[in-house]
Amino acid sequence: MRRYHINLVRGLLFVTALLAAHVHADICVNDDSGAQLCLTKAAQRIIALSPGATELVYAAGAGDKLVAAVSFSDYPEPAKNLPRVGSYNRFDQEAILALKPDLLIGWLSGNPREQLSQLHSLGLSVYYSELRSFEDVASTLERIGALAGTDSTAKTAAKKFRVGVNDLRTRYQNSAPVTVFQQIWTNPLMTVNNEHIISEATRICGGVNVFGDLPNLTARIDNEAVLAAQPEAIIAGGMGEENRDWLNEWRRFSGLTAVRKNNLFFIPPSTIQRPTPRLLQGTTLLCKHLDTARGRR
Amino acid sequence: MLSATDLVIDIPERKSGTPLCFDVKSGEIWGILGPNGAGKTTLLHTLAGLKKPRSGKVNLNNSDIQQLRRKHVAQQLAVVFQNNGEGFPATVLETAMIGRHPFISPWDIETADDLAIARSALQKLELSNLEQRLVSTLSGGERQRLAIATALCQSPKLWLADEPSNHLDLKHQVQIMALLAEQADSGCGIILCLHDLNLAAHWCDKILLLYPNGDACWGDADTMLTVTALERLYDQELSMISSEGQTYFMPVSSRNSRRD
Amino acid sequence: MAVVKTNNATSALPRFLTPLLLLFIFTLGALILAITTGSVHISNQELWQVLSGGGEPLHRTLVFELRLPRALSAFAAGGLLAVAGALMQVLLRNPLADPYVLGLSGGAAVGALIAMLSGLSATVVSGSAFIGAMISAVTVFGLAHGTGSWTPTRLLLTGVVIASGWGAAITFMLAVSPSDQLPGMLYWLMGDLAYARSPWMALTVLAIISVVMLPLGRSLNVLARGQMQAAALGVSVRPLEWTIYICASLLTAFAVTTAGSIGFVGLIVPHMLRLVLGNDQRLILPAAALAGGALLTLADTLARTVIAPEQLPAGVITALIGVPSFLYLLHRSR
């Protein structure tokens, strides 16, 4: 009788353990396409299909699980040595399949959707990323960490990022607003609207994007629109990480407030245009620049 | 064989003029004469069924040519056009071979018989040595002879030729008119648009005069080819010379009249 | 009589069969190259295992899921374009004509770009491209037909003007569309086989139209001599021109739907074949299907391997192979 009980208890324990194991084995996250992605075990062979995704995987502590990346994946340093599978907008499906990855980090609006969905239909797990805000950076870090089994590193990184952003937000929330023109390209001259992550950075620093109300995320505009908007500061990246040519072009318009007060500021494009933890550095720099502008009033 | 019943050709913005009623019989050579713009080519195309008449009918062997299938018409009747430059590159032999088109069904390809017909046509027109040349490399006269060879491949019962002597030197002019006369003798009906009055006088049995205003008259060659009628037709003074039983027409030029 | 005809006919056939056989072998070679080459090396022995139903799962995936459909799509698109080009050149009797000269690719591009801008799926983009091409074809035909007669010059002029209209519409859409959509749109315009999934539709259309054109070949030869001459030789010119126009439009529409607007194949392949094989459309049309298909298959194979893992658009390679070989043939023919 007693023996039977013991067996019963053992059996129940076994079933519970199985269930627990089962629940534990499936790692599920929601990706940015709205789909749920489940892995039976933590990813061991990851391919990141955009330079930004590569950075995020390293930041989430899963850099050693990356087996390949795409062209221009230049940060952090070890990423430069990863094997390549093409570029983000045109990659080699064969090379990807041959590496037998168990997780692809795709880019919803940048990668060719057809090719990604074909890889998905060939049995590869695809996480679709699309980062539109600072919070997306933190949550993507956590999700990649979950998928790669590097939860603790990822959570720490996410927390550090959130805290850093919050500090900036608190420090500048009562600063006087500065009107800003954010230049992301020249020929054609391009800027961003308020939906863009760059504008979120500008808001955190107490700046106001003069073209924030444009309908498209990025927009082509002409010099005249900038002259008419009279921004107090012009922020630009450039080709390469320290190239001030774009800013110097504005100097011929001496009627511009930003030119008169010399509020032409450079921010390395990869620290503000890529939605990665380095956004914190870019934003910190942006905040400093806007403070300088306030000082020149 | 080919008859026109109250036929009025369709030339935009021109009065209808005289309706044409005539019958081209086997063995006859008809010449259509008229000044530039009188509508000779339009008449020829209408007779070939390639152009709809304004009114009246063209009958081929007693059926309305507009109602007949084009392929059926092409088996009876060949047209030699004035311009043979148009079109894609093709060799002389290929061009002659298309004359066999109406006789080959869509799923068949040309037989050795067809090839033999084409070769003999080319030989008749002294083009054999040019067989593989591209048409675009031929001289005007050679092209004209090729057009006639192509029509010959069609082994037609009726010939409709627009200025067949165009571009030809004297020897080939005579050769081609003789060839057409030979065709007539073997039972073909032949209609020619001509500019050369003397060729018409020499070779044609019947003549149709086409005036620029749409008027027309027709009949036997000897009754039609009179100086007064032709002077009215061309609005040009003419003189007539007879030599060795043949009649020749010469325009009287101002230079001659000054000398008088 | 019928018996004699058949006997004689067999003697003329080799003239067609030999070049077609050679082209068929060339095509087969191109297809084999396409499924054996890629960034992953598969040895002949491994390939044989795969083809006989075994082999590594990875190799099976590469061959059957990636390389074979893509090679067949390239073959179909190239064949469709070359045949369409040959037909357009005869229809317009203009050596500069290509499948796109009458604005079909413009219409297709506008259709595809609208679908992309609306964020619709790839299938809808293809369907929309097809509809765009057909709208363009019907518009050009309707306008060229107009009230007067339908001469090649009038058709050509109408087509060219409509094509520039589409061009303006495309530029406008590229100018106002959000920049994250731009790369996809540009790649579509360049023509790319990376998106080609199922080749069967295009292959079927190619086969059907080739068969439809078979009995019309000789009539095309006659039409190539001019409308009047053709009519005098018993060709029903108007219906024939309609048939050519509709077939060429369908061919182009399916090609563009399969692979975007890949340039060059439709213009150059028919000309190359004419320089080598002469002007008989009965030979040129099936030869164009094979040669165009083989050229694009070869070009696409190079495009995806030559600087692998980076991928090139196939159109770049078709021009790189096509331009020098065409110029060589043209030079030699003089």
Sequence stretches where pLDDT stays below 50 over 5 or more residues of chain A:
none
- Provide the helix percentage of chain A: 40-55%
Straight-line N-to-C gap of chain A: 90 Å
How many structural units, i.e. domains of chain A? 2
Q: What is the CATH T-level topology of chain C?
A: ABC transporter involved in vitamin B12 uptake, BtuC
What's the mean pLDDT score of chain A? 88
State which percent range the strand residues of chain C make up.
under 5%
Q: Tell me the name of the CATH homologous superfamily of the largest domain in chain A.
A: Nitrogenase molybdenum iron protein domain
Question: What is the chain-wise order of helices and strands of chain C?
Answer: HHHHHHHHHHHHHHH
Structural class of chain C: mainly alpha
> What's the CATH H-level homologous superfamily of chain C?
ABC transporter involved in vitamin B12 uptake, BtuC
Segments of chain C where pLDDT lies below 50 for 5+ residues? 1-11
Radius of gyration of chain A: 24 Å
The oligomerization state is: heterotrimer
The helix content of chain C is over 70%
Question: What would CATH call the architecture of chain C?
Answer: Orthogonal Bundle
Radius of gyration of chain C: 21 Å
Overall mean pLDDT score of chain C?
85
Structure description:
The complex is a heterotrimer of chains A (297), B (260) and C (334). Chain A has 12 helices and 14 strands. With 297 residues, chain A is α/β, with parallel strands linked by helices. Chain A has a 4-stranded parallel beta sheet, with helices on both faces. In chain A, 43% of the residues are buried. Chain B has 260 residues and is an alpha/beta fold. Chain B has helices at 40-47, 70-76, 92-97, 112-124, 140-153, 170-185, 197-203, 221-224, 227-234, 254-259, and strands at residues 2-8, 20-24, 29-33, 55-60, 63-64, 77-80, 158-162, 189-193, 206-210, 216-220, 238-243, 246-251. In chain B, helix 4 (112-124) crosses helix 5 (140-153). Chain C is built from 15 helices and no strands. Classes of the chains: A alpha/beta (297), B alpha/beta (260), C mainly alpha (334). Chains B and C meet through helix 2 and helix 4 of B and helix 1, helix 10 and helix 11 of C.
